[in-house]
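New to this. Explain the following:
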Amino acid sequence: MTKIILRKGRDESLRRQHPWVFSGAVARIDGPEPAEGEVVTVLAADGSLLGCGHFQKGSIAVRMLSFTDEALPENFWDVRLAAALKVREALHLDQHQTNCYRLVHGEGDLLPGLIIDWYDGVCVLQAHSAGMFLARGEICQALQRLYGDALVAVYDKSEGTAPHKAGLQLADGYLYKNEHFAGGGAASADGAPGLAEHIVCEHGNRFVVDWENGQKTGFFLDQRKNRAAVGRLAEGRRVLNLFCYTGGFSVYALAGGALHVDSVDSSAKAIALTDRNVALGGFAARHESHCCDALDFLHSVPTGSYDLMIVDPPAFAKHRDALRNALRAYQRLNEDAIAKVAPGGIVFTFSCSQAVSHDVFAQAVMSAAIQVGRRVRILDRLNQPADHPVSIFHPEGEYLKGLVLYVE
């Protein structure tokens, strides 16, 4: 097996079990040049074993899979997936109320480069590294052994996440279906129910999941507890959900007793699914959707039109080079929300940019409040739920952050 030898003094982070080997830490490669995704052994400069992981060309040269083994043991996938499921079982999710969750959260489950979400019998897999993409067949087989008859399908949605420069044959599709699988994840174009529709429950609320055509794996599971927080505060309020995607926050607000909810997204497909999800709950009479730019809509409404706002934009900074522009965007967006919300109103504001820390995000929101000139209090600080665990050795995994603001 090819060996990656690190430079002297560049092994400290691995000895603390940080899962990334950066290319600048590599002194030399012993053996044949490894292919993208190949499992390699990692050694310190003194020759001591540090573990093994997936090799990849780029700034992150190796994603560590083990800190004890020279090569992956035969039962590696079974052991790691079983350990991940054990963590989710420890959360005591009520399967009658919530039958969807994240099974594997990359580095947080010691499987860097891999995401797996469970949607009531269907696993949706996303590989973010060449190694995980090449191992997806073994992963699928391990999932079948893990869940048994409860697993009806495994869908690979790695085309948009796996590295395109690695020469991989990327195409989304099913890795497994059993005889009980009724169809894919897509609803019809107008959001009406179809043969392929797959409905899940989250805290008793029902949602259509479109893993074939939707963003990410089909549903933003990382906002589950934050959606519940909106539901608890929505009673008697007029609510605006910006960047609504498939209307998760809207459904919770309506179920929580909101007087009316406006959902805004620039994607027609997202709006169609929002309307379908609202209809599933029987809330259509108190809801209106708007397919348009979120900022344009916010600028067009009179100040004080809403008592509660959800501001959940896509990632403005996917890497540190974009951080400065992202912070300006977060500040401008929050200026508009804080300026427009009614006195005594509440704003839920989020960033899902890994490069933006909790403190930096809070500073951007504080700057927004200063610019607007309204008194703002932080009622709560939000993050991702427990089925999106963060390795204590890899704090970069805590990507989702949010604030609940009270605006006087």
In short: The longest strand covers residues 376-383.
